[in-house]
Amino acid sequence: MLSNLFKVAIRYILKHKSYSLLNIIGLAIGIACCILILLFVSHELSYDKFHEKADRIHRVAVRALIGDTKINQTYSSAITFQKLLEDFPEIINGVKMFKADRMPITLNDKTFFETGLMAADSTFFSVFSFSLHQGNPQKALAEPNTMVLTKNAAIKYFGHTNVIGQVLNINFSAYRMGNIDFKITGISENVPSNSHFHYDMLISLLSFPELINNTGWTANNFVSYVVLEESTSRIELEEKLKDFTRKYMGEESFDEWVAKGNFWEYFLQPVTSIHLNSDLNGEFEANGNRTYVYIFSVISVFILLIACINFMNLSTAKSSLRAKEVGLRKVVGSNRRTLIIQFIGESIIVSFIALIIALFFVHLLLPVYRNFVGRELSISYIDDLVVIPSLIGLGLVIGIISGSYPAFFLSSFKPISILRGGSVNKKGRNWLRNGLVIFQFAISIFLIICTLTVYQQLQYFQNKQLGFNKEQVLVINNPGSLVDQVDTFKDILRNYSNITDVSGSNMLPGTGFSNIGFGAEEVEESFTLNIGVCDYEYLNTLKLEMVKGRFFSRDFLSDSNAVVLNENAALLLGWEDPLGKKINNWGTNRGDFIVIGVVRDFHYEPLHQKIRPMALFLEGGYYKRVQENIAVRLNTQDISETISYIEDIWKNYVPEMPFEYSFLDEDYENLYTNEIQTRKIFTIFSLLAIFIACLGLFGLVSFMVENKTKEIAIRKVFGSSIPKIINRLNLSFVKWLLVASILSWPFAWITMNRWLENFAYRINLTWWVFLIAAVIALFIAIFVVSFQTVRAALHSPVEALRYE
Predict the structure, then answer these.
(1) Helix (H) or strand (E) holding 493
(2) 3-state SS string over 316-357?
(3) Which of 249, 722, 743, 759 lies 20 to 30 Å from 594 when distance is taken between CA atoms?
């Protein structure tokens, strides 16, 4: 029976090549899109699940409210981690770590900037399942000044992986520790792409005694992970953490502080949920977003549905081609059940042919798609036992869904009626077919609206006044390499004609910042401020604007203990005139700072977040921090010449250090990676969805025009013009699209409103976006219908009516 079924299906495909090609290609593209999206979705859902103890590993995080300042961070202190291990027997292990960005690594007089360097406790490999290719995981980080490299890092620096015992020198000037030699004690496998953090070098945390021995509860320098016993409930442990916090933060004084509306809470994040559900200050890397995973999953289903609907529509539209076959089969004894099995079987065969073509498309596009989504995606047919059964299941499901309606429809024909020449296209069935077309275009219009809305929001980001000027600002990385020559280096750059301003700081818009507790005179409540440390030229280089007072100036020696607030910080403190008032920090060596000015609010964080209170301090004053970047404002179009000049000056001072730079506008735009990626995916898959719908519409219109050839000829004979004939046939499709628009608009409105809620600064949905989406779909449909109708209308009526 199966061989006969296969022969009949292949015979039918070869007999009706153009119709079958439309069906198969439409299904293949739909399946390929579905597989590509599901590869991305599957990868996003797989993050950190490769750890042996994944279901028991949790990250310790903090949420707090101090005055009007909200804190949501991954950072906690060394003493917090220590006391958690001591006080809770249900915590059986843990590790604390931090990331050290852009550290200069020296080997054989060559220096590299390493961005994948992390420091961790010796328990790192007991908590996480990163296997060691060489070395003992229990001892690899057990001593100071030891390190583990990944295979890639070993090959990068030495050309091979047999490097146990070799030494790399790391410049820790940024931590005021100078150069340190680290002995390589282990080689680990490369970190899987589906990990929420990655490292190339892992150094022992024992190399930083001042950090790990700091007993201050507010010295939040680490990201900590704990492993719970198998029977432990995370929720129950979080309840216990409330008493833990109260115990170590002063009990009665803590209660009084909380009674005023403040709070400080530790909570636990399951490691497998971090990538899609966490967006805290201090994330090691930019995480994904569960909302986008849901959206992309829905898109994959929509595209597959459109492809299946094409199959249904074309199969039922072409029913007259098989009507006599059905009649004859029934006459010779076939029952309806047998016919249904036959037609669904044929549909499954077509589905598997489309699946094979789709897999070819997937493998062809996968390299480009990897770069597009920024993920290491692949299909493993042998290593992953789920893949082949899933693909077989997908082919069966698509075949059954696509073929079910045509099978029941075709098998319902009455043999007597068919063999007498009766019509198979009942009005009710046409309505069902029309309804499927409406559904297709409703999905297409929905996707067009989503694409236009995402585009508008990104345009809003790009055009919104940020309060600073990010254009033509070159950012030099790692100026700490210049040590005490950094000011001289900046002075030389200022004298170059193509450079207007130069500023060193530890914070530029879009980069990280510290959050520190403060108090203030005439203010009872404590509060926190995000802080930046900068030099005198910071204001002019970024083109910030003062609204009160002045910025730091070399004319005032007292500015070493001065502070400039942003408008939100001044508003938080409630002073009518903040100038001359004092604030103080909570440091062990308390600092008192006089407010000398208020800078207009600027978006130093992405536009997902409202502008928060912040304070700027003078570099070299109370906060003696190494400058982490130098911003250089250019006034020329000859960027390459200016960069070459800056590089030459750099090499004069630190020839052993590579010169690395970026541009502020590009760095800031990288804050919206998820949104940019979403726009691209929406755009591409919306176009593909429309293309698949048009394939089906093309086939459907071809059949309709073929059936109306004589009608068109008669109308031409009686004087109808070609435009009138075209308009008549277009009218039904216009009505369908109007219905599709009305159906899709409410769903698009709800979906996009919810998506826009992710942003503190957002566009308002406008009616014209919905109208444009409908008009785009309408023009596409009219073009397809008109193209086919014009071809039929241009034929001579004589040919159509010759045999009447």
Answers:
(1) helix 486-494
(2) HHCCHHHHHHHHHHHHCCCCHHHHHHHHHHHHHHHHHHHHHH
(3) 249
For tokens 């027997």, name the residue. Answer: 89
Strand pairing class (614-618; 523-534): parallel
The pLDDT mean for the chain works out to: 82
Q: Are 169 and 180 within 8 A, CB to CB?
A: yes
What distance, in Å, lies between the first and last C-alpha atoms of the chain? 42
The pair of three-digit structure tokens given for residue 26, joined into one six-digit string: 């439409």
Residue 200 Cα distances to 96, 222, 225, 399, 491, angstroms = 17, 19, 20, 47, 36
Give me the sign of the Cα torsion angle 49, 53, 56, 57: negative
Instruction: Tell me the pLDDT tens digit for each residue of 37-96.
Output: 888 888 899 999 999 999 999 999 999 887 767 788 899 999 999 999 999 999 999 999
Query: Residue holding tokens 């079910």?
Result: 404
Q: How confident is the model at residue 428 (pLDDT cuts 50, 70, 90)?
A: very low
How far is Cα 199 from Cα 779, in angstroms, rounded to an integer? 51
Q: What is the 3-state secondary structure (H, E, C) of 55-92?
A: CCEEEEEEEEEECCEEEEECEECHHHHHHHHHHCCCEE
Residues in the chain: 804
Identify which of 121, 128, 115, 129 has the alpha carbon closest to the alpha carbon of residue 97: 121
Within 10 Å of residue 776's Cβ, how many Cβ atoms? 17
Report the b/e string of 224-246 with b at 16+ CB within 10 A.
Answer: bbbbbeeebeeeebeeebeebbe
Q: Residues 6 or more apart from 528 whose CB is under 8 A from it?
A: 66, 67, 69, 71, 515, 516, 517, 518, 613
- Closest by CA position to 735, among listed 448, 450, 444, 441: 441
Compute the average pLDDT of residues 350-361. 89
> 321-346: per-residue pLDDT in tens?
555 566 666 665 566 677 777 777 77
Other Cβ atoms closer than 10 A to 706: 12
For residue 427, pLDDT beyond 60: no
Q: When comparing pLDDT for 610 and 714, which is higher?
A: 610
Contacts of 388 (CB under 8 A, 6+ apart): 381
**3-state helix vs strand vs coil in the chain, percent to 5:** 50, 20, 30
Mean pLDDT of 526-539: 88
pLDDT tens for 731-764 read: 767 787 888 888 889 998 998 888 888 788 888 8
- Distance of alpha carbon 343 from alpha carbon 410, whole angstroms: 8
User: Given its phi and psi angles, is residue 333 left (phi above 0), alpha (psi -120 to 50 degrees) or beta?
Assistant: left
Q: Which residues touch 240 (CB under 8 Å, ≥6 apart)? A: 88
| Beta carbons of 547 and 600 less than 8 angstroms apart | yes
For the four alpha carbons of 257, 263, 264 and 268, in that order, the dihedral sign comes to positive
What is the DSSP code (8-state) at residue 467? Answer: S
Q: How confident is the model at residue 552 (pLDDT cuts 50, 70, 90)?
A: very high
**What is the arithmetic mean of pLDDT over 241-262?**
85
For residue 773, the number of C-alpha atoms closer than 13 Å in the C-beta half-sphere is 30
Count CB atoms within 10 A of the CB of residue 518. Answer: 26
For residue 94, the SS3 value is strand
For the entire predicted model, the pTM comes to: 0.79
Structure tokens at 128: 């996480």
Residue 679 reports pLDDT greater than 90: no
CB neighbours of 779 closer than 8 A, spacing ≥ 6? none
| DSSP count for the chain of H helices, then E strands | 25, 25
d(C-alpha 503, C-alpha 618), whole Å = 12
pLDDT in tens, 118-171: 999 999 999 999 989 899 999 999 999 999 999 999 998 888 889 999 999 887
Spatial CA neighbour of 77 closest among 264, 233, 242, 276? 264
